[in-house]
Design brief:
The chain has 504 residues and is an alpha/beta fold. The protein is built from 18 helices and 24 strands. A hairpin with a 4-residue loop joins strand 10 and strand 11. The N and C termini lie far apart (61 Å). This is Xylulokinase. Belongs to the FGGY kinase family.
Length: 504
């Protein structure tokens, strides 16, 4: 009897879902767009019931209907969602407020300042890194300080994948990879809840139980079956964050493998054979047992290209509506002839503060070097290069920590922009690959479901099913230009950060 596996991922601006067969080939694919709620500067939210669960149900039903597959043949379901979110829910799993999103939401800056002063030199020891806007403990503290009635009513504080898993199975779980974002609320050594630190932030019973991402959390309940179209009793994975699932989708399995996720933000996962200490980034474990990772993330990438489209390329939006020409593809064509370095124009892409390696929620965007010869296309190319310089800063830190980089896999919507992809390879001076299957985290969820569902006996066996596609070789002449401008890029922030902080 044939078996199938479903994977669904909830992202910042859209959700994706796939059904695959036991051979990891995609049988059905679908996506659903949604909005990002930005009620005030520095606040970014999702309506968890409408967006997270609503998209999951829509995609699940659509995938089943369009594929014609009997739901009883779907052996296991994998899931992921944007990581580092904070959602308070009541005892009936009803969200008490909109979900506070990952590092792009910097409302907890005062709480971070308080924790830095409280713990002093012990901060890096306690959190494992410099506290930043991605950490969930300060977000919980913000709710406690600013929404006391919601805080009192909260039965659980969940992240996206935990919420979805609970909606499907009634079980409150979080995978070990994402639990690190809750530091210091968990003791990751023995997968327990830290009574020592919980007293400041929340009660131990308000946290989910730690499992592995590929563990079976439970099975689809009767109510979830009714809403999703899945069969009652179908196995459901614990799930994980979108970036971890995306890394899996590209075959980033072994130490030396690096994923660059070019989505709404950039996210990096560098796999290694040991746990390292690096406070500027987020070291920890990975989804795959006995493999460690150094993770990091910017606050803008695709969100910045979206800003350019909405603010500076109005006519392309209108053109897309009238003749179907993709605005982003047209924007990429607009910069093809702009030379490396954008003729001396440099952009600091900190339009929403910055996570790693700066960990500065008050960093600001900047264009430096403007002349009358620069055009809109120069501005856009410089912005993409600015994200490339930030990517390169992370690789410098990998090198400082003696982490060998053997393979770089780029994934996400940004890889559709070949000019941007080439600029990243040129700035790094390294070969960059893309995956043949580009459904991203949803595909990673599905193949993890295939592994846990028994279609594969090991990660090694599963890795043989993933093939690379594009090979982007660096232009070393361009690399020389970029190396010079990257130094200026770094110095611009160092010289201007005090002024940036005047506008908190």
């Amino acid at each position: 009897m044939k078996q199938y596996f479903m994977g669904i991922d909830i992202g910042t601006y859209e959700s994706k879902g796939v059904i695959i067969g036991s051979d990891c080939r995609v049988v059905s694919f679908s996506f659903e767009k949604h909005e990002l709620i930005n009620p005030k500067p520095g606040y970014f939210e999702h309506d968890a019931e409408k967006t997270w669960w609503g998209d999951f149900c829509t995609l699940s039903k659509r995938l089943i209907n369009e594929s014609g597959i009997d739901p009883k043949l779907i052996r296991c379901v994998g899931l992921s969602a944007l990581g580092c979110d904070c959602l308070p829910v009541d005892e009936n799993l009803k969200p008490l407020t909109n979900a506070i999103l990952y590092g792009i939401d910097c409302r907890s800056a005062n709480e971070i300042d308080y924790l830095n002063k409280l713990y002093g030199n012990r901060v890096k020891e306690i959190f494992g890194h410099e506290i930043c806007s991605s950490d969930i403990a300060p977000k919980i503290l913000w709710i406690k300080n600013n929404l006391p009635e919601i805080y009192k009513r909260a039965a659980k504080f969940l992240t996206g994948s935990s919420y979805l898993c609970a909606k499907l199975t009634g079980k409150y779980t979080i995978d070990k990879y994402l639990a690190e974002d809750f530091a210091p609320l968990y003791n990751l050594g023995d997968n327990s809840i830290s009574n020592e630190f919980c007293s400041m932030f929340c009660r131990p019973d308000q946290l989910a139980d730690i499992k592995q991402a590929t563990d079976i959390a439970g099975t689809v309940t009767a109510e979830a079956a009714r809403q999703t179209g899945l069969s009652f009793g179908t196995d459901v994975l614990v799930g994980t964050g979108d970036s971890g699932a995306e890394a899996v989708s590209t075959g980033v399995f072994c130490p030396g493998d690096v994923m660059i996720q070019m989505g709404s933000s950039c996210y990096f996962i560098c796999l290694c054979d040991r746990l390292i200490t690096e406070p500027r980034m987020w070291p920890g474990t990975f989804i795959i047992p006995e493999v460690f990772a150094v993770c990091a993330g910017t606050n803008t990438a695709g969100t910045l290209t979206r800003w350019f489209r909405d603010e500076l390329y109005h006519e392309l939006i209108e053109s897309e509506q009238s003749n179907g020409k993709n605005a982003y593809a047209e924007m990429a064509g607009d910069i093809e002839k702009i030379p490396a370095g954008s003729e001396g124009l440099i952009c600091l892409p900190y339009f929403a503060g910055e996570r790693t390696p700066l960990n500065d929620p008050f960093a600001k965007g900047m264009f430096f070097g403007l002349t009358l010869s620069h055009t809109r296309a120069h501005l856009y190319k410089a912005a993409l290069e600015g994200i490339g310089y930030t990517i390169a800063q992370h690789f410098d830190i990998f090198e400082e920590n003696s982490l060998p980089v053997k393979k770089i896999m780029a994934v996400g919507g940004g890889t559709k922009n070949k000019v941007w992809l080439q600029a990243v390879a040129d700035i790094l001076g390294r070969t960059v690959y893309t995956s043949k299957i580009t459904f991203g985290a949803a595909y990673g969820d599905a193949i993890m479901a295939a592994l846990s569902g028994g279609a594969y006996s090991s990660w090694e066996e599963l890795s043989k099913m993933i093939e690379p596609d594009l090979v982007i070789e660096p232009n070393m002449a361009a690399h020389i230009i970029y190396s010079r401008q990257k130094q200026i890029f770094s110095e611009l922030y160092n010289r201007n950060k005090d002024l940036m902080h005047e506008f908190k």
